Amino acid sequence: MTEALPFGLSHVDDALADRLRTGLDDVEVALRRAVTSEYPFVTEASSHLVSAGGKRFRPLLALVAAQYGDADAPGNVPGAVVAELTHLATLYHDDVMDEAKLRRGAPSANARWDNTVAILTGDFLFARAADIAADLGTDIVRLQARTFERLCTGQIRETVGPAEGEDPVVHHLEVLAGKTGSLIAAAGRMGAMTSGAPQSVAHAISAYGEKFGVAFQLSDDLLDIASESEESGKTPGTDLREGIRTLPVLLALRGTDPEGARLRELLAEPLVDDDLHAEALGLLRSSPAMVEARAELVSWAESARAELAALPAGPATDALSMMCDVVVDRSA
Q1: Closest alpha carbon to 27 in 88, 81, 74, 76
Q2: Which of 3, 162, 182, 254 could form a disulfide with 150 if both were Cys (CB 3.0 to 4.6 A apart)?
Q3: What is the pLDDT of residue 107?
């Protein structure tokens, strides 16, 4: 049986699918090499999330973007690895900030060891990503550095919260663009750059990636509320329990309808009580806020798709369009 591509790309052109599978296999080998240290404990800690799996969406996007240039260029796989290592590093740091116990269905690094180990392991992965980027040229190094800046700024903005008078929904979407969209945009741009694709392609895929990244995170947040299983790699309703205000919660909180009063009351505080959590989750699932949040997801996905008009027609562009369908359908 032919191995399925990640992210539900089941109807991609056969030749493209074969190239992407080969590229992702090479990425996996390179990732394992990149997280290996002369010190066994460092190897164990830095391999923790690599071994836990994941969607590998960022390297996938980088490899798709590389199809617009030289699909066999030697920098394509290293560029995809830079994007994934940067992503993995942020996960170690995120779990410390969120005091998460699980990541990808396995104990988080901070739960398995402690916060110090998790933070330093994230730093180690950033360093490895920068080392690989240095071999790809100053433009890739600059792109990674500027992306890292946006990631940090997005995280700081999320931590501080909206300024007085700022719309919490607008603030939240801007945070998602910084925390998630920027790295997905960078992954696409890296693939275009390492393959020598035209600058117009790099620009279009970057614009696509940023908008797609917001849709990607919105889809994850909806899945966390709507799913009955642990499809998202964590227990459904985890964000709700921890008081993390994702888009459906923000939309519900700004409502004024009498029917939503009980839900707004429950959402005002972290829901540590199991019964109150279950009540809030049920109310939120059936609320107008979920409908509105899903419409926002669709809007971002379609906005991302619109950026593809600047790209030449072909299997790679078809694959990028298919991703827009998948990101919407997965949270349905």
Answers
A1: 81
A2: 182
A3: 63
Tens digits of per-residue pLDDT, 219-238?
A: 999 998 887 655 545 566 77
Residue 9 lies in a domain: no
Instruction: Report the domain count for the chain.
Output: 2
The domain that holds 153 is classified in CATH as 1.10.600.10
CA-CA distances (angstroms) from residue 65 to 166, 176, 186, 196, 212? 36, 22, 11, 10, 14
Mean pLDDT of 36-52: 81
Dihedral through CA 254, CA 260, CA 261, CA 263, nearest 10?
-90
Residue type, 260: G
The helix/strand count (H/E) of the chain reads as: 16, 2
What is the domain extent for residue 182?
14-195
Q: What count of Cα atoms within 13 Å lies in the side-chain half-sphere of residue 23?
A: 32
